[in-house]
Design goal:
The longest helix is centred in the first third of the chain and has 32 residues. Helix 1 crosses helix 14, helix 3 runs antiparallel to helix 11 and helix 11 packs antiparallel against helix 14. By secondary structure, the chain is mainly alpha-helical. Helices cover 64% and strands 5% of the residues.
Length: 306
């Protein structure tokens, strides 16, 4: 039986003591770890954003000069727009493919396990390794474009803004679609078969069952995947560094890469800290808005009434 005592949910096992939710002590290790490696560094970054510092000596307080300069910086404004474009393209391309692959991988098709294992290979590689790999594959002289001039023209895919953003979107999808596929695969396997049986009784075919049963049951997983894509897209850096270096010119310079340029190429760690704080605040705000707007924070089950 289930009882409610002193505001805490408890359950009683037959012949045993009541069992309640874990106390706060269970969360202490994770809380301390998060505080030391997330909150404390973020506080120092916030303080550094109001200083002028080249990485040597003592930072000098300069008020809001860094923030005023960023607000007037055309490259910073452009980088925000490019970041938004990359995030939107990543979501639009990765979400439908991940859902389809995840639902397929959750089935019982012949050779499914082997094909799924091949699909998940990019998960074993780091972003840097994947970027180096694709940098070689799209080389205009020795890569695939050089062998197929009828398809790629001069083969310089990174020579234009559209080409550079297209390559970043493709490589990002190639790397992260398997990860999101795993999320949807697990969620699809948790869908009760009785729902599909009821849909069949109502005359629903495969396509109708997919949209009326599968997609609604994947709702919470879709929100989780969306938040991960948003945060990952806003903070993407190594792929841009290795594949395009922000080029041509600043055509593919996203905000995270611009932060790197300010800090480690321009030795302006104060402004770079301001950019880092902007990214942290934007990513956190968008994630909270998505969670609240979708009702995910209430953890409502998609199987209520079963």
């Amino acid at each position: 039986m289930t009882t409610l005592a002193q505001g805490k949910r408890t359950s009683r096992r037959p012949g045993g003591p009541s069992v309640g939710r874990p106390g706060f002590a269970w969360a202490v290790p994770a809380t301390v770890f998060f505080g030391l490696f997330a909150i404390v560094p973020l506080v120092f970054v916030a303080i550094l954003s109001f200083t002028s510092w080249n990485g040597l000596g003592t930072p000098q307080f300069n008020g809001v000069d860094n923030w005023v300069a960023l607000a007037k910086d055309p490259v910073m404004i452009q980088s925000l727009g490019i970041t938004v474009v990359l995030v939107v393209l990543g979501i639009v391309t990765q979400t439908p493919l991940s859902i389809l692959l995840g639902v397929w991988a959750a089935g019982h098709q012949k050779n499914r396990a082997v094909l799924s294992a091949i699909c998940f290979v990019p998960l074993l590689l780091s972003s840097a390794a994947i970027s180096v790999l694709w940098r070689a594959l799209i080389d205009p002289n020795f890569g695939i474009p050089g062998e197929l001039p009828w398809l790629f023209g001069n083969g310089n895919l990174l020579g234009s803004q559209a080409g550079a953003i297209g390559v970043l979107t493709f490589v990002g999808g190639w790397q992260f679609i398997p990860f999101h596929t795993l999320i949807y695969q697990g969620a699809a396997r948790a869908i009760p078969p009785v729902l599909y049986q009821a849909a069949q009784i109502d005359g629903a075919g495969t396509v109708r069952s997919f949209f009326n049963v599968t997609i609604p049951q994947l709702r919470n997983s879709m929100i989780t995947s969306l938040v991960l894509m948003l945060v990952g897209g806003l903070t993407a850096f190594d792929t841009v560094l290795i594949l395009t270096a922000g080029g041509p010119g600043t055509a593919s310079t996203n905000t995270a890469y611009y932060m790197y340029q300010k800090a480690f190429l321009g030795f302006d760690f104060g402004t770079a800290s301001a950019i880092a704080l902007v990214l942290a605040v934007v990513a956190t705000t968008i994630s909270l808005v998505v969670v609240r707007a979708t009702g995910y924070d209430k953890m409502r089950s998609t199987q209520e009434g079963l």
